[in-house]
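=== RUN LOG ===
request id: a7f3
mode: sequence -> structure
chains: 1
length: 427
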Amino acid sequence: MAGSDTIFALSSGNPPAGIAVIRISGPRALAVLDSLGGRVPPRRRASVMRLCDPLDGSLLDETLVLALPGPATATGEDCAELHLHGGRALVARVQQVLGRLEGLRQAEAGEFTMRAFRNGRIDLAEAEGLADLLSAETELQLRNAQALSGGALSRMVHEWRDEVLAISARVETSIDFADEEDAEGIDPGFSNDCSDLAEKLSHWLDAPRAEILREGFRVAIGGPPNAGKSSLFNALIEEEAAIATPIAGTTRDALHRPIALGGVPFLFVDTAGLRDETGDVVEAIGIERAGQELARADLVLWLGPGGEGPAGCWEVQTKTDLVGAVESGALFHVSAVTGEGIERLRAALIEIAREAMPKPGQLAVNARQASLIAEATAALRDGGQITDPLLIAEGLRRARLAFDRLLGNTGTEDMLDALFGRFCIGK
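=== RESULT ===
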């Protein structure tokens, strides 16, 4: 991602559409408007222009354009926008013409946001929130992503960093004047302030993680072959996604289906039937993967014999519609055929998943952010347990470094490509 290049991409939905927006960012962005329209329109004002192919003068489109000089733009660079009529052929032709212009190239995935980060328009925590915003499918995901992308966590981190800087200044002053005859020694308030801030940070480590919000509450359905796992899976997601037959061993691999229930994101997993021995190599692989899925799940619906499921599972008796079915001591009794008990089970799943999700107004941090908050917390706790001002100063330095890494001010090169690769082209 060469920052000196001028990049372009379709940033609206795939055509056909009423309007197709092509974004251009980089040092030649405004010159593109002159090349296609013969002039650069008034800055920051929507203007109608006839855009033509510089090669032969043929009309491309008569449309609205925007000239947006940097650095007060989304990327911090000169930008331009072409608000074209949204036909496939037109969009393809304009992109082809742009690709022929000197110094222009198609943007890579996430490159606009990468440039915004590089140019200080957003920090890393805001960029991560923006990535979540683009993939949000439920109201819970949307609220958390909007808070992160809007800088809620970043503002909090800046406040924590300012507190650490204030304590650090006092500690450094104490160190500088330690040799004075009238020096009173270490102020016990330093340690108390470190402990108080560590306690404040620790509450963030007890909160739900953004991963469960992004990926959904993971529910795996497990049990022996022909226990009704696939039928229950289909009934819960209200879709014939899994093949359900009376033949044992029909399900050979784990089947995943993300779905929202009651506004809560879920990931349901149908697994292969568990049994001790099988002569089928493919089934054996499926059984191994089933065990892995049950271990990863936030909750397991166990359709096997009572007491044999994983710790914390919900025991579910299926096929209650069959003649002669005897009610067991399972927590739930359901029939995928008649629908008996399905709504009760679904309601219980929504309730437990909602408890695992962030509460209204509560911000969920991801694993990377939580790890750095934990580093800062540990450093501050160390400072709260010692009286040597030099050691306290070192703990405060470590805490500041963790905050800087959280915001992307240092030590982030190893994960930037992975983050911005989550974005679509044009964002």
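=== NOTES ===
The chain has a mean pLDDT of 86.
The CA atoms of residues 65 and 293 lie 51 Å apart.
=== END ===
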